[in-house]
């Protein structure tokens, strides 16, 4: 059974419909990539899942339970953590405070913090530093760490590689692979399609607010459409 | 000078609300007046000294602030400033006229046994009431910073002030955090009201003047900066008493508002303020 299921959802901003009838599934343990160009509706889809944007039509289920129409606080409590576009850290709070704010369960906070520090030793070194003074890559680590503090079943990532140096992108993607191996399911939105496909088990291609293609990694890597439009081959 | 602590506490409450919600609480002074009247009610009906009663005033104003935020302010948090000002002035009018209706227009004063005595403090005579008001106000400000920097709720308040969208994304109930912050801000000014009630005769129309005074301090200290509000309160109090001594007592407001003009000319973000990015 799928952990997350989107059933022809429609969402948008005011009178603009950004995604039409998007249906997708994420099974427990998978990494699923959602790829597409600028303005294709990738961020909108993630925001709708977390409840940051109302779903106008269709339904979203987590583990068979309906979650559309719920507030972000309830969605996060049910096990979805969102690493938003632009990271959205708390710049005047310390790295440690940023991380601790991500925890939903006080009793497990110390353990969660230890495993985040194990995953990102750099964050432990910068523990007391204000999040706003970190480098872009460190900020991305902090944002991922903050989301992991909630011990989520499903991790949503919105453009984790945006604006980062290639070395940092490599590091982030390696860490995402580790996070997945450790048992966290991932839904990844990414413009770096080559990287995303290398990590993902399956992927969906979103264009103009609609899913135009989906399938296992190998099929998409071979697809002429994907090659031409996204891989520049 | 000793009024400084109370000035600081008023301004800290206002700056907390502004820092978190970007809403200027124009009902701040009227909330303070309600703190004074509650202290007066407790003193006259129950014989409770205001220097104990301030705790109850703070709690009552917390509830008032929480409810006003939940029912009214939450609707306009994202609205343009002019709409927020209209709503907050409306709340101010309602609070002021309610006080007028219930307590009448005559100036009142709370008698505190402590306000009668004076002590020698080094070379000067100080009355005990002012000293206690100052000490309690400073203590409350310290407690507030402990709350903001050492507790989970306080941390969530700072996070929501820093980046409301970020707070929402990680599953913070931002509306609840806002209501708590507004309640805490109102509790500060409620306690400030109770602390000055024995020192200053009060009547319902004073609210606006107190709101403006708090706003003045907040701008001098830097909008949204707790430290700025605290230091600003002390500076304004000192400036006013110097003005009262060297010019005329009736000119003390002239001094504090001249200070405001100077700050706006030379350091528009306030003493501890950062420029808006």
Structure description:
Chain A contains ten helices and ten strands. By secondary structure, chain A is of the alpha/beta class. Chain A folds into two domains: 2-79 and 153-231, P-loop containing nucleotide triphosphate hydrolases (Rossmann fold, 3-Layer(aba) Sandwich), CATH 3.40.50.300; 91-151, no CATH class. A six-stranded mixed sheet of chain A has the order 6-7-8-3-9-10, with helices on both faces. A four-stranded antiparallel sheet of chain A has the order 2-1-4-5, with helices on one face. In chain A, β1 and β2 form a beta hairpin. In chain A, α3 runs parallel beside α6. Chain B has helices spanning 4-21, 28-46, 50-76, 81-103, 128-150, 152-162, 164-169, 174-196, 206-221, 226-246, 252-266, and strands at 118-121, 124-127. Chain B has a two-stranded antiparallel sheet. In chain B, β1 and β2 (124-127) form a beta hairpin. The longest helix of chain B has 27 residues, at 50-76. Chain A binds chain B through residues 50, 52, 71-73, 75-77, 81-82, 84, 88-93, 97-98, 100-102, 104, 106, 146-147, 150, and chain B through 152, 155-156, 158-159, 162-163, 165-173.
Could you provide a short overview of the structure?
The complex is a heterodimer of chains A (233) and B (277). Chain A has 233 residues and is of the alpha/beta class.
Which features characterize this protein?
heterodimer, A: 233 residues, alpha/beta, 6-stranded mixed β-sheet, 4-stranded antiparallel β-sheet, 10 helices, B: mainly alpha, 73% helix, globular
Beta-strand content estimate of chain B: under 5%
The biggest sheet of chain B amounts to: 2 strands, antiparallel
Order of SSEs of chain A, N→C?
EEEHEEHEHHHHEHEHEEHH
Tally the helices of chain B.
11
- As for the CATH topology of the largest domain in chain A, it is Rossmann fold
Order of strands, widest sheet of chain B: 1-2
Count of extended strands of chain A: 10
Low-pLDDT stretches of chain A are none
CATH superfamily of the largest domain in chain A: P-loop containing nucleotide triphosphate hydrolases
Order of helices and strands of chain B: HHHHEEHHHHHHH
Calculate Rg of chain B over CA atoms.
Answer: 18 Å
Strand order in space, largest sheet of chain A: 6-7-8-3-9-10
Overall shape of chain A: it is: globular
Mean pLDDT of chain A: 93
The greatest interface between two protein chains, and residues involved on each side, is: A-B, 27 and 16 residues
Could you report the average pLDDT of chain B, rounded to the nearest whole number?
89
Form type of chain B: globular
Q: Report, as a whole number of angstroms, the end-to-end distance of chain A.
A: 36 Å
Q: Total domains of chain A, how many? A: 2
Number of domains of chain B: 1
């Amino acid at each position: 059974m799928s952990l997350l299921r989107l059933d022809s959802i429609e969402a948008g901003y005011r009178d603009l419909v950004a995604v039409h009838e998007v249906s997708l599934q994420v099974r427990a343990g998978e990494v699923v990539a959602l790829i597409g160009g600028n303005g294709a509706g990738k961020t909108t889809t993630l925001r709708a899942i977390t409840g940051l944007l109302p779903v106008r039509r269709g339904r979203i289920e987590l583990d068979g339970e309906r979650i559309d129409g719920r507030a972000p606080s309830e969605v996060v409590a049910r096990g979805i953590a969102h690493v938003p576009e632009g990271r959205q850290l708390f710049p005047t709070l310390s790295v440690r405070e940023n991380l601790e704010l991500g925890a939903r369960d006080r009793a497990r906070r110390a353990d969660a913090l230890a495993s985040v520090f194990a995953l990102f030793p750099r964050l432990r070194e910068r523990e007391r530093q204000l999040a706003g003074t970190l480098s872009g890559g460190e900020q991305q680590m902090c944002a991922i760490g903050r989301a992991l503090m909630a011990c989520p079943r499903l991790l949503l990532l919105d453009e984790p590689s945006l604006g980062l140096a290639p070395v940092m992108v490599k590091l982030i993607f390696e860490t995402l692979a580790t996070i997945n191996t450790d048992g966290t399911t991932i839904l990844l939105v990414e413009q770096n399609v080559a990287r995303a496909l290398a990590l993902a088990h399956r992927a969906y291609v979103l264009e103009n607010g609609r899913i135009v293609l989906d399938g296992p990694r190998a099929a998409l890597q071979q697809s002429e459409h994907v090659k031409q439009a996204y891989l520049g081959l | 000078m000793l009024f400084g602590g109370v000035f600081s506490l008023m301004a800290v409450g206002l700056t907390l609300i502004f820092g978190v919600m970007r809403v200027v609480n124009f009902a701040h002074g009227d909330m303070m007046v309600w703190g004074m009247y509650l202290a007066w009610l407790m003193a006259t009906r129950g014989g409770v000294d205001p220097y104990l009663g301030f705790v109850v005033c703070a709690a009552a104003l917390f509830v008032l602030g929480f409810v006003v935020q939940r029912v009214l302010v939450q609707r306009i948090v994202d609205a343009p400033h002019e709409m927020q000002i209209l709503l907050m002035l409306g709340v101010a009018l309602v609070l002021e006229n309610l006080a007028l209706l219930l307590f009448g227009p005559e100036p009142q004063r709370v008698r505190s046994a402590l306000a009668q005595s004076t002590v020698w403090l080094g070379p000067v005579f100080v009355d005990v009431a002012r000293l206690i008001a100052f000490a309690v106000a400073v203590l409350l400000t310290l407690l507030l910073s402990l709350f903001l920097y050492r507790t989970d709720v306080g941390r969530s308040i700072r996070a929501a002030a820093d980046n409301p969208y970020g707070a929402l994304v990680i599953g913070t109930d931002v509306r609840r955090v806002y209501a708590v912050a507004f309640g805490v801000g109102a509790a500060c000014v409620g306690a400030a009201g109770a602390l000055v009630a024995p020192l200053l005769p009060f009547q319902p129309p004073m609210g606006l003047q107190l709101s403006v005074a708090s706003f003045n301090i907040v701008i001098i200290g830097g909008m949204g900066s707790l430290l700025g509000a605290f230091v600003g309160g002390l500076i304004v109090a000192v400036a006013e008493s110097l003005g009262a001594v060297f010019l005329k007592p009736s000119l003390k407001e002239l001094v504090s508002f001249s200070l405001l003009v100077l700050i706006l000319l030379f350091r528009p973000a306030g003493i501890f303020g950062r420029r808006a990015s």
